[in-house]
Amino acid sequence: MTAVWQDTRTPALAIVARGDQIETVSPTEYVVRSQSKLDTKYRVTVSRDRWECECAFYAETKIACIHIYAVRFREGLRADPAHPQLNPVLCARCQSGSVVLSGKRHNKSGTLARYSCKVCGFRFVGRDGFQRRRADPEKIALALDLYFRGMSVRKVKEHFAQAQGLHVSHVTIYNWVAHFGKLAAAWMDRQGARTGERWHIDETVVSVNGDPKYVWNVLDADSRFLLATHVSKLRDLKQTRLPLCKAKAATPDRPMEVFSDGMLSYPRAIRNELGYRSEMQLVNPHHRVPSIRARESNNLVERLHGTEKERIKVMRGFDNDRGTAALMEGFRAHYNLVRDHQTLKTTPGVAAGIAPIRGFRWHELLKRAACQPKSGSPELELISN
Prior knowledge:
This protein has 12 helices and 14 strands. By secondary structure, the protein is α+β, with helices and mostly antiparallel strands. Among the domains are: 9-74, no CATH class; 89-126, no CATH class; 193-353, Ribonuclease H-like superfamily/Ribonuclease H (Nucleotidyltransferase, domain 5, 2-Layer Sandwich), CATH 3.30.420. A 5-stranded mixed beta sheet has the order 10-9-8-11-14, with helices on both faces. Strands 1-2-3-4 form a 4-stranded antiparallel beta sheet, covered by helices on one side.
Protein backbone atom coordinates (compact mmCIF):
# COMPACT_ATOMS: atom_id res chain seq x y z
CA MET A 1 0.00 0.00 0.00
CA THR A 2 1.16 3.56 -0.69
CA ALA A 3 2.78 5.10 2.36
CA VAL A 4 0.89 7.90 4.10
CA TRP A 5 2.76 11.18 4.42
CA GLN A 6 3.61 12.05 8.01
CA ASP A 7 3.72 15.75 7.07
CA THR A 8 1.48 17.03 4.30
CA ARG A 9 1.65 20.74 5.03
CA THR A 10 5.39 21.25 4.41
CA PRO A 11 5.63 19.60 0.95
CA ALA A 12 2.35 21.21 -0.11
CA LEU A 13 3.62 24.67 0.87
CA ALA A 14 6.88 23.90 -0.95
CA ILE A 15 4.92 23.25 -4.15
CA VAL A 16 3.13 26.57 -3.75
CA ALA A 17 6.42 28.40 -3.01
CA ARG A 18 7.98 27.32 -6.30
CA GLY A 19 5.34 29.34 -8.10
CA ASP A 20 5.14 27.43 -11.39
CA GLN A 21 3.90 24.03 -10.22
CA ILE A 22 0.16 24.67 -10.31
CA GLU A 23 -1.83 25.60 -13.39
CA THR A 24 -5.46 26.74 -13.19
CA VAL A 25 -7.57 25.18 -15.94
CA SER A 26 -10.94 26.37 -14.61
CA PRO A 27 -12.41 27.43 -11.24
CA THR A 28 -12.94 23.72 -10.47
CA GLU A 29 -9.93 22.12 -12.19
CA TYR A 30 -6.18 22.44 -11.68
CA VAL A 31 -3.03 20.71 -12.94
CA VAL A 32 -0.18 20.08 -10.47
CA ARG A 33 3.28 18.91 -11.48
CA SER A 34 4.63 15.75 -9.86
CA GLN A 35 7.53 16.42 -7.47
CA SER A 36 9.12 13.00 -7.99
CA LYS A 37 8.48 12.18 -11.67
CA LEU A 38 9.63 14.48 -14.44
CA ASP A 39 7.09 15.43 -17.11
CA THR A 40 4.22 14.01 -15.00
CA LYS A 41 1.20 16.10 -14.08
CA TYR A 42 -1.84 15.34 -11.97
CA ARG A 43 -5.31 16.76 -12.45
CA VAL A 44 -6.96 18.06 -9.26
CA THR A 45 -10.69 18.71 -9.39
CA VAL A 46 -13.31 19.99 -6.96
CA SER A 47 -17.03 19.37 -7.30
CA ARG A 48 -19.14 20.88 -4.57
CA ASP A 49 -17.93 19.05 -1.45
CA ARG A 50 -15.38 16.65 -2.95
CA TRP A 51 -11.70 17.12 -3.85
CA GLU A 52 -10.08 14.49 -6.08
CA CYS A 53 -6.63 13.93 -7.59
CA GLU A 54 -5.32 11.59 -10.28
CA CYS A 55 -2.21 10.60 -8.31
CA ALA A 56 -1.71 7.01 -7.11
CA PHE A 57 -1.80 8.01 -3.43
CA TYR A 58 -5.32 9.47 -3.63
CA ALA A 59 -6.55 6.67 -5.89
CA GLU A 60 -5.51 4.08 -3.30
CA THR A 61 -6.28 5.80 0.00
CA LYS A 62 -8.96 8.41 -0.86
CA ILE A 63 -7.08 10.70 1.55
CA ALA A 64 -6.24 14.25 0.51
CA CYS A 65 -2.76 14.30 -1.07
CA ILE A 66 -0.10 17.01 -1.19
CA HIS A 67 -1.41 18.10 -4.59
CA ILE A 68 -4.87 18.83 -3.16
CA TYR A 69 -3.32 20.60 -0.17
CA ALA A 70 -1.09 22.66 -2.48
CA VAL A 71 -4.04 23.88 -4.55
CA ARG A 72 -6.05 24.75 -1.47
CA PHE A 73 -3.13 26.58 0.17
CA ARG A 74 -2.53 28.58 -3.00
CA GLU A 75 -6.21 29.52 -3.21
CA GLY A 76 -6.31 30.56 0.44
CA LEU A 77 -8.58 27.69 1.55
CA ARG A 78 -7.31 26.83 5.02
CA ALA A 79 -9.96 24.23 5.92
CA ASP A 80 -8.58 20.72 6.31
CA PRO A 81 -9.56 18.61 3.25
CA ALA A 82 -8.42 15.32 4.82
CA HIS A 83 -11.94 13.97 4.64
CA PRO A 84 -13.05 13.69 1.00
CA GLN A 85 -16.53 15.07 1.64
CA LEU A 86 -15.62 18.27 3.44
CA ASN A 87 -17.26 21.31 1.85
CA PRO A 88 -14.99 23.95 0.29
CA VAL A 89 -16.09 27.56 0.38
CA LEU A 90 -17.80 28.34 -2.92
CA CYS A 91 -18.73 31.69 -4.39
CA ALA A 92 -22.36 32.55 -3.63
CA ARG A 93 -22.79 33.94 -7.16
CA CYS A 94 -20.78 31.79 -9.63
CA GLN A 95 -20.07 28.73 -7.40
CA SER A 96 -16.32 29.02 -8.08
CA GLY A 97 -13.84 27.47 -5.67
CA SER A 98 -11.36 30.33 -6.21
CA VAL A 99 -12.34 32.16 -3.04
CA VAL A 100 -10.08 34.01 -0.59
CA LEU A 101 -10.67 35.50 2.85
CA SER A 102 -11.51 39.20 2.71
CA GLY A 103 -12.04 40.40 6.25
CA LYS A 104 -14.68 39.68 8.87
CA ARG A 105 -18.19 40.82 9.64
CA HIS A 106 -19.27 41.47 13.22
CA ASN A 107 -22.84 41.47 14.46
CA LYS A 108 -24.63 40.79 17.74
CA SER A 109 -24.73 37.05 17.04
CA GLY A 110 -20.97 36.67 16.51
CA THR A 111 -18.20 37.08 13.95
CA LEU A 112 -18.51 35.73 10.41
CA ALA A 113 -15.82 35.42 7.74
CA ARG A 114 -16.16 37.54 4.61
CA TYR A 115 -14.90 36.14 1.29
CA SER A 116 -14.05 37.51 -2.12
CA CYS A 117 -14.31 35.51 -5.36
CA LYS A 118 -11.22 35.72 -7.61
CA VAL A 119 -13.30 34.83 -10.68
CA CYS A 120 -16.25 37.23 -10.59
CA GLY A 121 -15.15 39.60 -7.82
CA PHE A 122 -18.30 39.05 -5.72
CA ARG A 123 -17.92 39.57 -1.95
CA PHE A 124 -20.06 37.55 0.41
CA VAL A 125 -20.34 36.30 3.96
CA GLY A 126 -19.47 32.62 4.40
CA ARG A 127 -22.64 31.23 5.88
CA ASP A 128 -22.35 27.84 4.20
CA GLY A 129 -26.00 27.70 3.16
CA PHE A 130 -27.29 29.60 6.23
CA GLN A 131 -28.19 32.76 4.32
CA ARG A 132 -30.95 34.94 5.75
CA ARG A 133 -30.21 33.60 9.24
CA ARG A 134 -28.84 36.25 11.55
CA ALA A 135 -27.34 33.79 14.04
CA ASP A 136 -23.99 32.06 13.65
CA PRO A 137 -24.44 28.67 11.89
CA GLU A 138 -22.64 26.97 14.78
CA LYS A 139 -25.24 28.32 17.21
CA ILE A 140 -28.03 26.99 14.99
CA ALA A 141 -26.34 23.59 15.01
CA LEU A 142 -25.97 23.79 18.80
CA ALA A 143 -29.69 24.51 19.13
CA LEU A 144 -30.54 21.37 17.15
CA ASP A 145 -28.08 19.28 19.14
CA LEU A 146 -29.49 20.42 22.49
CA TYR A 147 -33.08 20.00 21.32
CA PHE A 148 -32.69 16.46 20.03
CA ARG A 149 -30.76 15.46 23.15
CA GLY A 150 -33.82 16.27 25.25
CA MET A 151 -34.09 20.00 25.96
CA SER A 152 -37.23 21.93 25.11
CA VAL A 153 -37.05 25.02 22.92
CA ARG A 154 -37.61 27.26 25.96
CA LYS A 155 -34.72 25.62 27.81
CA VAL A 156 -32.51 26.02 24.75
CA LYS A 157 -33.49 29.70 24.71
CA GLU A 158 -32.44 30.05 28.38
CA HIS A 159 -29.17 28.25 27.68
CA PHE A 160 -28.29 30.65 24.86
CA ALA A 161 -29.15 33.69 27.01
CA GLN A 162 -26.99 32.57 29.95
CA ALA A 163 -24.13 30.66 28.33
CA GLN A 164 -23.87 32.31 24.90
CA GLY A 165 -25.17 35.81 25.51
CA LEU A 166 -27.52 35.31 22.55
CA HIS A 167 -31.12 36.42 22.97
CA VAL A 168 -33.49 34.67 20.58
CA SER A 169 -37.11 33.70 21.02
CA HIS A 170 -38.27 30.11 21.49
CA VAL A 171 -40.24 30.48 18.25
CA THR A 172 -37.02 31.22 16.35
CA ILE A 173 -35.37 28.15 17.84
CA TYR A 174 -38.38 26.05 16.90
CA ASN A 175 -38.14 27.33 13.32
CA TRP A 176 -34.43 26.43 13.22
CA VAL A 177 -35.13 22.91 14.44
CA ALA A 178 -38.01 22.32 12.02
CA HIS A 179 -36.29 23.80 8.94
CA PHE A 180 -32.76 22.47 9.34
CA GLY A 181 -33.83 19.13 10.78
CA LYS A 182 -35.90 18.46 7.67
CA LEU A 183 -33.03 19.71 5.49
CA ALA A 184 -30.58 17.30 7.16
CA ALA A 185 -32.97 14.36 6.73
CA ALA A 186 -33.43 15.14 3.03
CA TRP A 187 -29.64 15.20 2.55
CA MET A 188 -29.34 11.90 4.41
CA ASP A 189 -31.89 10.22 2.15
CA ARG A 190 -29.85 11.22 -0.91
CA GLN A 191 -26.77 9.34 0.36
CA GLY A 192 -28.16 5.91 -0.62
CA ALA A 193 -27.87 4.05 2.69
CA ARG A 194 -27.29 0.30 2.29
CA THR A 195 -29.54 -2.02 4.26
CA GLY A 196 -29.87 -5.73 4.99
CA GLU A 197 -32.55 -8.27 4.16
CA ARG A 198 -34.74 -7.67 7.23
CA TRP A 199 -36.78 -4.56 7.93
CA HIS A 200 -39.11 -3.83 10.82
CA ILE A 201 -42.17 -1.59 10.76
CA ASP A 202 -44.40 -0.54 13.61
CA GLU A 203 -46.52 2.36 14.77
CA THR A 204 -46.98 3.91 18.19
CA VAL A 205 -49.48 6.36 19.64
CA VAL A 206 -48.24 9.72 20.90
CA SER A 207 -50.03 12.77 22.23
CA VAL A 208 -49.37 16.06 20.46
CA ASN A 209 -51.06 18.91 22.30
CA GLY A 210 -53.64 16.50 23.69
CA ASP A 211 -54.53 14.88 20.36
CA PRO A 212 -53.57 11.25 19.62
CA LYS A 213 -51.28 10.80 16.62
CA TYR A 214 -49.59 7.76 15.12
CA VAL A 215 -45.86 7.75 14.51
CA TRP A 216 -44.71 5.06 12.06
CA ASN A 217 -41.12 3.84 11.86
CA VAL A 218 -39.33 1.60 9.36
CA LEU A 219 -36.03 0.22 10.70
CA ASP A 220 -33.29 -1.88 9.13
CA ALA A 221 -32.35 -4.79 11.38
CA ASP A 222 -28.66 -5.02 10.43
CA SER A 223 -27.56 -1.38 10.58
CA ARG A 224 -30.34 -0.09 12.90
CA PHE A 225 -30.79 2.64 10.28
CA LEU A 226 -34.14 4.43 10.67
CA LEU A 227 -35.29 4.49 7.05
CA ALA A 228 -38.52 6.40 7.45
CA THR A 229 -40.71 8.17 9.97
CA HIS A 230 -44.29 9.15 9.28
CA VAL A 231 -46.90 11.00 11.37
CA SER A 232 -50.63 10.51 10.76
CA LYS A 233 -54.05 10.72 12.37
CA LEU A 234 -55.32 7.43 10.93
CA ARG A 235 -54.08 3.86 10.46
CA ASP A 236 -55.74 3.00 7.16
CA LEU A 237 -54.07 1.31 4.18
CA LYS A 238 -52.86 4.55 2.62
CA GLN A 239 -51.15 5.68 5.83
CA THR A 240 -49.61 2.22 6.25
CA ARG A 241 -48.09 2.37 2.77
CA LEU A 242 -46.64 5.87 3.10
CA PRO A 243 -43.77 5.04 5.52
CA LEU A 244 -42.87 2.03 3.33
CA CYS A 245 -42.87 4.28 0.28
CA LYS A 246 -40.57 6.74 2.07
CA ALA A 247 -38.26 3.90 3.11
CA LYS A 248 -37.89 2.76 -0.51
CA ALA A 249 -36.79 6.26 -1.48
CA ALA A 250 -34.05 6.29 1.19
CA THR A 251 -32.15 3.20 -0.03
CA PRO A 252 -31.53 1.30 -3.26
CA ASP A 253 -31.91 -2.02 -1.39
CA ARG A 254 -35.07 -4.05 -0.86
CA PRO A 255 -35.75 -6.47 2.01
CA MET A 256 -36.51 -10.16 1.79
CA GLU A 257 -38.48 -10.04 5.06
CA VAL A 258 -40.53 -7.28 6.71
CA PHE A 259 -41.66 -7.87 10.30
CA SER A 260 -44.73 -6.22 11.81
CA ASP A 261 -47.40 -6.79 14.41
CA GLY A 262 -50.86 -8.13 13.63
CA MET A 263 -52.51 -4.97 12.31
CA LEU A 264 -54.69 -5.99 9.37
CA SER A 265 -53.41 -3.40 6.88
CA TYR A 266 -49.76 -4.50 7.07
CA PRO A 267 -49.87 -7.61 4.80
CA ARG A 268 -51.48 -5.79 1.89
CA ALA A 269 -49.41 -2.62 2.29
CA ILE A 270 -46.13 -4.56 2.41
CA ARG A 271 -47.14 -6.72 -0.55
CA ASN A 272 -48.02 -3.67 -2.64
CA GLU A 273 -44.86 -1.73 -1.82
CA LEU A 274 -42.20 -4.43 -1.35
CA GLY A 275 -43.52 -7.58 -3.01
CA TYR A 276 -41.07 -9.29 -5.39
CA ARG A 277 -41.12 -12.14 -7.89
CA SER A 278 -39.31 -15.41 -7.25
CA GLU A 279 -39.58 -18.32 -9.69
CA MET A 280 -42.46 -16.58 -11.48
CA GLN A 281 -44.41 -16.18 -8.27
CA LEU A 282 -45.20 -12.97 -6.40
CA VAL A 283 -43.70 -13.19 -2.92
CA ASN A 284 -45.05 -11.09 -0.07
CA PRO A 285 -42.10 -10.44 2.33
CA HIS A 286 -44.46 -9.71 5.23
CA HIS A 287 -43.90 -11.68 8.45
CA ARG A 288 -46.32 -11.27 11.33
CA VAL A 289 -44.75 -11.32 14.79
CA PRO A 290 -47.19 -13.16 17.10
CA SER A 291 -45.87 -11.66 20.37
CA ILE A 292 -42.90 -9.92 21.93
CA ARG A 293 -41.72 -13.28 23.28
CA ALA A 294 -41.54 -14.90 19.84
CA ARG A 295 -38.12 -15.88 18.45
CA GLU A 296 -38.54 -13.46 15.57
CA SER A 297 -39.74 -10.39 17.45
CA ASN A 298 -40.25 -6.74 16.64
CA ASN A 299 -38.22 -5.65 19.66
CA LEU A 300 -35.76 -3.56 17.66
CA VAL A 301 -38.39 -1.06 16.59
CA GLU A 302 -40.13 -1.28 19.97
CA ARG A 303 -36.92 -0.10 21.65
CA LEU A 304 -36.72 2.70 19.11
CA HIS A 305 -40.20 3.82 20.17
CA GLY A 306 -38.94 4.20 23.74
CA THR A 307 -36.11 6.44 22.60
CA GLU A 308 -38.47 8.40 20.38
CA LYS A 309 -41.06 9.00 23.07
CA GLU A 310 -38.45 10.52 25.35
CA ARG A 311 -38.04 13.19 22.68
CA ILE A 312 -41.74 13.49 21.75
CA LYS A 313 -42.96 14.14 25.28
CA VAL A 314 -41.54 17.69 25.25
CA MET A 315 -43.31 18.44 21.96
CA ARG A 316 -46.72 18.71 23.58
CA GLY A 317 -46.87 22.44 22.86
CA PHE A 318 -46.69 21.94 19.09
CA ASP A 319 -50.08 21.26 17.60
CA ASN A 320 -49.21 21.73 13.93
CA ASP A 321 -49.10 18.42 12.05
CA ARG A 322 -46.70 19.67 9.42
CA GLY A 323 -44.32 21.06 12.04
CA THR A 324 -44.45 17.85 14.05
CA ALA A 325 -43.56 15.83 10.95
CA ALA A 326 -40.58 18.13 10.30
CA LEU A 327 -39.39 17.68 13.88
CA MET A 328 -39.61 13.91 13.54
CA GLU A 329 -37.50 14.09 10.39
CA GLY A 330 -34.89 16.00 12.37
CA PHE A 331 -34.99 13.31 15.05
CA ARG A 332 -34.37 10.69 12.34
CA ALA A 333 -31.26 12.56 11.17
CA HIS A 334 -30.06 12.83 14.79
CA TYR A 335 -30.69 9.14 15.43
CA ASN A 336 -28.92 7.98 12.26
CA LEU A 337 -26.01 10.39 11.88
CA VAL A 338 -25.31 12.16 15.19
CA ARG A 339 -26.10 9.85 18.10
CA ASP A 340 -23.89 6.78 18.59
CA HIS A 341 -25.90 3.57 18.86
CA GLN A 342 -25.15 1.75 22.12
CA THR A 343 -25.00 -1.68 20.47
CA LEU A 344 -23.17 -0.69 17.30
CA LYS A 345 -20.67 1.64 19.05
CA THR A 346 -21.04 3.93 16.05
CA THR A 347 -23.87 5.68 14.26
CA PRO A 348 -26.43 3.72 12.20
CA GLY A 349 -25.46 5.90 9.25
CA VAL A 350 -21.88 4.61 9.32
CA ALA A 351 -23.19 1.05 9.66
CA ALA A 352 -25.33 1.70 6.55
CA GLY A 353 -22.35 2.87 4.50
CA ILE A 354 -22.70 6.65 4.84
CA ALA A 355 -19.36 8.41 5.35
CA PRO A 356 -18.77 9.28 9.03
CA ILE A 357 -19.28 12.85 10.18
CA ARG A 358 -16.47 14.04 12.42
CA GLY A 359 -16.15 16.91 14.88
CA PHE A 360 -19.31 18.72 15.94
CA ARG A 361 -21.61 16.43 13.99
CA TRP A 362 -24.69 18.64 13.71
CA HIS A 363 -22.57 21.54 12.46
CA GLU A 364 -20.79 19.46 9.82
CA LEU A 365 -24.06 17.76 8.83
CA LEU A 366 -25.84 21.07 8.30
CA LYS A 367 -22.93 22.47 6.27
CA ARG A 368 -23.14 19.51 3.90
CA ALA A 369 -26.93 19.55 3.75
CA ALA A 370 -27.19 23.30 3.18
CA CYS A 371 -24.47 23.43 0.50
CA GLN A 372 -25.42 20.38 -1.55
CA PRO A 373 -28.11 21.04 -4.19
CA LYS A 374 -31.32 19.13 -3.90
CA SER A 375 -31.91 16.38 -6.37
CA GLY A 376 -34.82 16.64 -8.74
CA SER A 377 -36.56 13.57 -7.41
CA PRO A 378 -40.34 13.82 -7.61
CA GLU A 379 -42.66 13.68 -4.66
CA LEU A 380 -43.55 10.24 -3.36
CA GLU A 381 -46.57 8.72 -4.96
CA LEU A 382 -48.55 5.63 -4.07
CA ILE A 383 -48.97 3.21 -6.95
CA SER A 384 -52.23 1.31 -6.97
CA ASN A 385 -51.77 -2.44 -7.27
